[in-house]
Specification:
This protein is of the alpha+beta class. Helices cover 24% and strands 22% of the residues. It contains four helices and seven strands; from the N terminus they run ααβαββββαββ. The strands form two sheets. Strands 1-2-3-4-5 form a five-stranded mixed β-sheet. Strands 6-7 form a two-stranded antiparallel sheet.
Length: 153
């Protein structure tokens, strides 16, 4: 191989897969939990619509593989879904008018193994925000506390 070919092979070896063209391709790149669960096409369409470019899912897998985890964030709330890619986690819920919509992002030490394992097992509890949100320039911004001591990175 030439130097350029070798560099391209190294770069794309761990790169994200091309953008899925639909639900079947999406499901090849994403672990769905609980196992055996099939997400509705409308949820996959909402995820693909919210992601610019590729969806950030590595082709090889490993501990950074993308995951779609169904959760109930409150007893009286409809079931939601958390989509983890390599860089962020977004929460989706059924929209009142049909389909699914993004509720927002989870912030914090998302890729700690214990965080992913707890979410996959449904071992979580809602916690009220420690700080209030701020409205600036007509937009609501969330104040997110810094990492806790001993946080994984």
């Amino acid at each position: 191989r030439t130097g350029a070919e070798a560099a391209l092979a190294r770069e794309s070896r761990y790169g994200a897969a091309p953008r899925p063209s639909g639900p079947a391709e999406f499901l090849r790149l994403v672990d769905v939990l609980p196992e055996g669960r099939t997400p509705p096409d409308a949820l996959i369409e909402a995820i693909l619509g919210a992601q610019a470019g590729d969806i950030g899912c590595p082709q090889g897998g490993g501990d950074r593989r993308c995951a779609l985890i169904f959760v109930r964030v409150a007893p009286d709330a409809p079931e939601a879904a958390v989509f983890y890619d390599r860089f962020r986690a977004r929460v989706y819920a059924p929209a009142p008018e049909g389909g699914w919509r993004s509720l927002g992002r989870l912030e914090g030490d998302l890729h700690c193994p214990e965080v992913r394992a707890a979410l996959a097992a449904g071992a979580f509890a809602p916690e009220p925000p420690a700080l209030p949100n701020l409205r600036l320039g007509g937009r609501v911004l969330a104040l997110v506390p810094g990492g806790e001591p001993g946080a994984c990175r």
